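thread from #wetlab-drylab

HS: before we spend reagent money on co-crystallization trials with N-(5'-phosphopyridoxyl)-D-alanine, can we at least see a predicted complex? here's what I'd submit
DV: go for it
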Amino acid sequence: MEKVLFNGKIIDRGKASFSFDDRSMYFGDGVYEVIRVYSGHPYKLEMHLQRLQRSADELDIPYSIKEKQSLKKRVSELIDTNELTHDGYVYIQLSRGAAARDHLYERHIEPFIFAFTKEMEKPTAQQEQGIAVYLTEDIRWLRCDIKTVNLLGNVLAKRQAADHDCSEAVQHRGDTVTEGSSSNLFIVKDGQLITHPADNLILNGITRQVVIDLAEKQGLPVSITPFSTDELLEADEAFITSTINEITPITEWRGTKHGMLKIGAVTKQLQAELQADIERTRTGE
Ligand code: PDD
């Protein structure tokens, strides 16, 4: 029977019952993380847990370093208990907790945390062949740096993309490209890698950070600067990054602008570098 982490305890999934009054249901009042697991080993767990803590701090949800340490252990236990020995991911959600519905939150509410694991194949075909993406206006709030479960702008953008036979939506605020509905975005122009700064308009993706680091180690010039939808259409290469998609090349733009792209050498080089890093996790390095 599949187990889940439920407020510090590992229990049967069927026995996990949520409070009717959980604030994540009424207000989207909670934060989350998605962590990839390769051959049973969580990838960049510490970075994800640090981001969870930052998200909680930004939302004034009490979550201590001590809890973070025990969560780290529990996540590994959950992976082992569910025998997630192949590839998959762990989803963790931290909600402000349960209280009678009121916009005003009280600070004594007990936060509620749960996690589950899921098996998942690597999206190899997309990574090799590339994807079409749909350009759409970014309608989200101004704190996209917080990984909250309130994802309505993102889910509407993803639906719009799917309705146009695209795998991902690429959002822009006016002329400035921000990020995907569940990924970050990079373009390559004249050998230079360009991505939006990690400010309030995007989520500072863990994969984004890993890719920037790998690129710099390879001596690839990286420019962390906003770019326009026109620059995106004139890019030599483009790709999205995320925990789920790793590095996935973009081969077509649809939506507010149209265009086609080839999968280029920089994208392939970074894909190879990321795979090498993932292999180190697989072997428990
Ligand atoms: N989403 N931007 C947004 C809006 C995202 O939702 C995500 C990830 C990313 C990439 O972040 P990371 O590299 O840390 O996965 C960027 C996850 C996978 C999700 O919501 O399922």
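DV: The CA atoms of residues 140 and 152 lie 8 Å apart.
HS: ok that's useful, forwarding to the group
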